[in-house]
From TrEMBL:
Domain CN hydrolase as annotated: residue spans: 1-242
CDD domains to which the protein is assigned, alphabetical: nitrilase_5
InterPro entries in alphabetical order: C-N_Hydrolase, C-N_Hydrolase_sf, Omega-amidase_YafV
Protein name: Carbon-nitrogen family hydrolase
Highest taxon above the source species: Bacteria
GO molecular function: hydrolase activity
Keywords noted in UniProt: Hydrolase
Pfam families for the chain: CN_hydrolase
UniProt organism field: Anaerobutyricum soehngenii
Annotated SUPFAM superfamilies: Carbon-nitrogen hydrolase
Length: 272
């Protein structure tokens, strides 16, 4: 299984320019016989809080990636923003009006749409985006895929839950250079502690006063980095074998030793 990671220099809030760049990445991916291509968080806009501009165009963004997945016959993982449905806002009038989402498209169809559970309050994301409430996974090539977005990486509990089924977990991000060592460390830790392949795709370049330096990578379930760490815009390629996950979980069944009922009890007792 060949994964292509589009470490992209996103043009700030310039959807049309970014679409052109995205298609160039698809063309490179075809040349390299990629099965799945993964783009950074908020692929066509950058990490923008201008929700009226980026969110209202969500449907067209999703359609674009659906068409790219059909045209290039490639599983496609991408980021976008989307308005919260009106019926949900009626039920929860205190909610923010937009989601930060990850989509997975195949053969022209959206197979998964995950809403980021943990908006980045330090960067004011929580003032504009509503946190999601559901974990999502999808089957592909006899493998279960899980998906998260950027700041989610700091919350290990959701990875433990996802990895009960998932063998590959994607994390798409706009993670700045100032904290890039933490990105590297957390991706590796999540791979080891969950016995999964972690596929982390970050952007590069500058946006809204922040500098991004990539470090997109695939980590194996034993913590080995499969791809070369690079900081410039590029397409990174990694070959993985999901069968390794199944075998490792048989020979070293770490998850069988988890004591989740005890953890829940300890958590409840800590609140007394």
């Amino acid at each position: 299984m060949r994964i292509g990671m589009a470490q992209m220099d996103i043009s700030w809030e310039n959807i049309e320019d970014n679409k052109k760049k995205v298609e160039e990445f698809f063309q490179k991916a075809v040349e390299n016989q990629v099965d799945c291509i993964v783009f950074p968080e908020m692929t066509l806009t950058g990490f923008s809080m201008n929700v009226e501009e980026t969110g209202e165009k969500a449907e067209k963004q999703v359609h674009f990636f659906e068409e790219m997945s059909r045209k290039y016959k490639m599983l496609t993982v991408f980021g976008y923003t989307e308005p919260v449905p009106e019926e949900r806002l009626k039920e929860h009038p205190d909610w923010n009006h937009y989601y930060n989402r990850l989509g997975i498209a195949e053969n022209g169809e959206l197979k998964l749409n995950y809403a980021k559970i943990h908006p980045f309050s330090y960067g004011f994301e929580g003032d504009y985006y509503q946190g999601g409430r559901k974990l999502k996974s999808v089957e592909w090539k006899d493998t279960t895929l899980g998906a998260f977005i950027c700041y989610d990486l700091r919350f290990p509990e959701i990875f433990q839950i996802s990895s009960e089924k998932s063998e590959i977990i994607f994390v798409i991000a706009n993670w700045p250079r100032s904290r890039i060592d933490q990105w590297d460390t957390l991706l590796k830790a999540r791979a080891i502690e969950n016995q999964v392949y972690m596929v982390g795709v970050n952007r590069t370049g500058d946006g809204d006063g922040l500098h991004y330096n990539g470090h997109s990578a695939i980590y194996s379930p034993d913590g080995e980095v499969i791809t070369t760490i690079r900081e410039e815009e590029c397409l990174l390629i990694g070959d993985i074998n999901p069968g390794v996950i199944k075998e490792m979980r048989k020979t070293f069944p770490m998850k069988n030793d988890r004591r989740e009922e005890l953890y829940i009890k300890m958590w409840k007792n800590s609140m007394l």
